[in-house]
């Protein structure tokens, strides 16, 4: 009895913790470089629930750690996940939203050195995303696509320079979600 109670409690906890993340293309994961930059507790928090908000991830306060850039996940842990994309091409995304929270969302190309958006505007913007008051979420909340810029000005040709960042803020929840897809233009 103890064992089954323990298992069902653990499953329940995993369910209520879940909020949302990107399932494709492959997004940055935590690893040893993140543990070095942000502390082991930050990595543990993400491994405990890969869909949790940034606000649940402790930072060690180091200037090398910015949880609000790619969840603190580091390029050095993700060099094998770099996507090679053509300027002007269409990139499909899928997301999972086990616990939706209404708020704005967007997908942008971000310069990781400065944590600033490139090419002027987000590639995709939702005024209202993941609205838990809807009986069914719009299909484009969990399957959407972005069109990459055609004029790239030589940017994003070095692995680690740029990411495709999915950003979502649940307004009433006060929770921020981010995932970063490493890519190069070629
Ligand atoms: C999304 O969350 C799941 C469940 O915790 C996790 O297995 C997966 O690695 C996460 N993916 C990303 C890209 O964060
Ligand atoms: C994405 O949306 C958030 C919330 O509205 C906003 O703070 C952020 O500036 C947006 N990002 C871009 C690049 O516009
Ligand atoms: C997502 O789909 C909804 C419902 O069809 C539509 O109103 C909204 O404009 C779409 N949003 C984006 C960013 O494509
Ligand atoms: Cu949440």
Automatic annotation (TrEMBL):
Can you give the residue ranges of the Chitin-binding type-4 domain?
19-183
The identity of this protein, by name, is Chitin-binding type-4 domain-containing protein
Keywords, in A-Z order: Copper, Disulfide bond, Glycoprotein, Metal-binding, Signal
The family annotation for this protein states: Belongs to the polysaccharide monooxygenase AA13 family.
PANTHER family noted in UniProt: BINDING PROTEIN, PUTATIVE (AFU_ORTHOLOGUE AFUA_1G14430)-RELATED (PTHR36575), CHITIN-BINDING TYPE-4 DOMAIN-CONTAINING PROTEIN-RELATED (PTHR36575:SF2)
**Matches recorded under InterPro entries:** Cellulose/chitin-bd_N (IPR004302), Starch-active_LPMO (IPR052282)
Superkingdom field:
Eukaryota
Needed cofactors, names only, are:
Cu(2+)
Source organism of this protein record = Aaosphaeria arxii CBS 175.79
Which range is the signal sequence, renumbered to this chain? Answer: 1-18
* Gene Ontology molecular function terms on file: metal ion binding
